[in-house]
Write a structure and sequence with these properties.
The complex is a heterodimer.
Chain A (H helix, E strand, L loop, with lengths): L1 H15 L8 H5 L2 H18 L12 H15 L11 H4 L7 H18 L3 H11 L3 H4 L3
Helix pairs in contact in A: 3-4, 3-6
Chain B lengths: L1 H19 L8 H7 L12 E2 L5 E2 L17 E11 L4 E11 L3 E11 L1 H6 L7 E14 L12 E11 L2 H6 L2 E3 L1 E13 L4 E10 L9 E3 L6 E13 L2 E8 L13 E11 L2 E9 L10 E10 L1
Antiparallel strand pairs in B: 1-2, 3-4, 3-16, 4-5, 5-6, 6-7, 7-9, 8-11, 9-10, 10-12, 12-13, 13-14, 14-15, 15-16
The chains are: A mainly alpha, B mainly beta.
Amino acid sequence: MKAILRSACLMSALMTAAPAFADDPLFTDMGGQAGIDSIVDASVDNYLADDRIKTIFDESNMDRIRAEFKVQFCQVAGGPCAYRGHDMVAAHKGLHLTNADFNAVVEDLQDAMTKVGVSFAVQNRFLARLAPMQHQVVSK
Amino acid sequence: MRSFAVGMAAFAVLFSMTSVHAGEASPSLWDQGSALFDHSKLLATGGVSAVEGEGGGGLGAWALITGYGTRDGIGLNIHETYVGLPDYQLHAPGIAIGLFDRLELSYAWQAFDTEATGAALGLVRGFTFHQNIYGAKLKLIGDAVYDQDIWLPQIAVGVQHKENDRGAVIRAVGGKGSVGTDFYLAASKLFLAQSVLLDATMRLTKANQFGILGFGGDKHADYSTQFEGSIVYLVSRNFAVGGEFRTKPSNLGVAREGAALDVFAAYFLNKNLSVTAGYADLGNVVLHDHQDGIYLSLQAGI
């Protein structure tokens, strides 16, 4: 039962990560690509300053990560982008991330969105699309 | 109030113990133990403390496991709830622990002061019913927060064993017993894109006024199925407003018992402290109609 549910979650998560609608109001409400770029920069700054999770990025090329996040966030928000980076399972393989790590990332992202001026209601619309990634990101 | 003070003192001791050991060089057994308090669930996702001690809203149980422990950790909290009605008042302090976001154990102690009504009932003024409530809740399936892509809510089953200390009075008003056990099935779902949390709970119970007036009665002695529902709107990361509705059986001939409802606002200062204030309407409570008044609850946890 658990395995069926897990694969169902995975499938629907992959489906939500599929092609974007360029006229998605969320993309506009997040300030378009410029807004998303600011959100990504502010959130990555937060991750690297967060003692709970900064070591996760020890081996990472942060310039590439920022660039990939900007495309991926754009796509998740329904903007006119196609994320062609690693899928979520592959990107986090071997990191043994916990729910605590995942939630720390969420909190840092919330702080970043607040800093950039995204309203709480819009933040939640975006987070609702990211939340199911927990199933692929958290492996521990 | 005295037990609340004891609880606060216990909390202060626990809290100081975790901070004292934070500075040690090598990870001792204690450090490993205190690391279990991972404090890592998202703010407010453990709910607040319900009047019977479990994680929930004010009046009803939710499927969420109390506290801020993730599936790799534990969370412990204490609370004090006060309900001030025109003719009665209720104090309900308690303690609860959430284990690995799977199992929750709780204890609450309720003191229901009948004030002047005690004398009207042929008892003494300020006659007080006391009740111990031992609770356990097990999360079965689903995750209310992460599962934003599927309809499945978080579902939990729970049990609450209640012991009332006023058996003689309970039997005199037609109650069948002073000990009872409730069973419930709760479903909670966060609709994150809408910033709304919904909960629906079915409860099997014999309790008269939550058990304060005992269990079963001359009119109806057996279990009945009751409903608890709540809707919460998340205004910001640390502020939520909501309303709850709870049906109750009407087992006693002497007093018609109706549904209870409330509206509330909960403020989460941080993961250690939350305050809930609201307005609760318990309807008719023995001799007195329109028992509505303030609801206040404070939760402190690690």
